Input
Amino acid sequence: MDFFSEIIGETVILGLDSLILGFCVKQLSKCKHILNALQTAPVLEIDSSINKELKKFPNSTIPYVVIRGLVKPLGTPITSNYNNSITGVVQRLTIKEHVIARTSAGFWSDQTRTIHEVCNSTPFVLNNGKYSIEVVDALAAELLDMDVISDKFEPMSPGVIDHVWGFFSGVRQRGLQTMEEMLRDGSYITAIGELSKSKTGALKIQPPRDGLPLYLTTATKSSLLKRLASSRDFLRILVVIFGAVAVAASCRVAYKYVKRRKRRALDDSVKQRLAAGRRERRAVAREKNLSEVQLCVVCTENPKEIILLPCGHVCVCEDCSDNITDNCPICRKRIESRAPAFIT
Ligand SMILES: [Zn+2]
Ligand SMILES: [Zn+2]
Output
């Protein structure tokens, strides 16, 4: 059995584990990066002081900033599809299919699939009295807290055919969930992103350039920091677990390799002992007082015992033949095979 087939299990585990470990390490470093940026991000009020703060930074841009204010649409707000009295600036309509599906293990479990999602948004600002900051690209926000305006579930009443079909296909329909969420105008939210001032003097907050996320949330900076810290801790635990698996799998591969080398060394020494034994037995059985023509051309001690093929030269004893692997010592032709020669 070659070495690779001996360690195939460990290789598969190591491969999968490295993929997961790599992903966790990446997420962890991203999480730490956001956490550091958020910890140092200034919390600014939307008032006259904001212009003073902006002047302290190059290009009148603060890379990461926390601002709280009231949502106010710049044009006509979006009206809810389900309640005419509710208006907002971002709307998300989702249709989800609820099914009971048979898993690969043979159990039936509840599953939800999003079959349709529409997002609408209209330009809006965060407002405080006469001061306001425009929120750019709100849909790109990594965290966008919205109010659930409507959440309806329409169950399906399956017939006999549906039951039979469900049994064979492994998927049974349970119903459709239609949901509408909105960022309502007048709601008080925290925006975390890059704050900049255009040449016309208008302020805007948008997704930062260096991979940091834009947050539009009802949470405060401190509760967001807590959330990020707990996900960082969770990721750390995952990294430790998958790291330990990687170390264990690598150690096992190393152990198997060392064991295999030891086994080989043992096999070789057994072979060598057997060959030495054979040589001794041959020496005892050999004829003595041979003429020079009958002697091996290499050691000139033992009789010629081996025929080299394809050249056909009978020129060496069995001991010397063991040490000659490539060419015939007489004609230098390549040795392809050899056989015992019986000279009578
Ligand atoms: Zn010899
Ligand atoms: Zn030869």
Observations:
- The first strand starts at residue 43 and ends at 44.
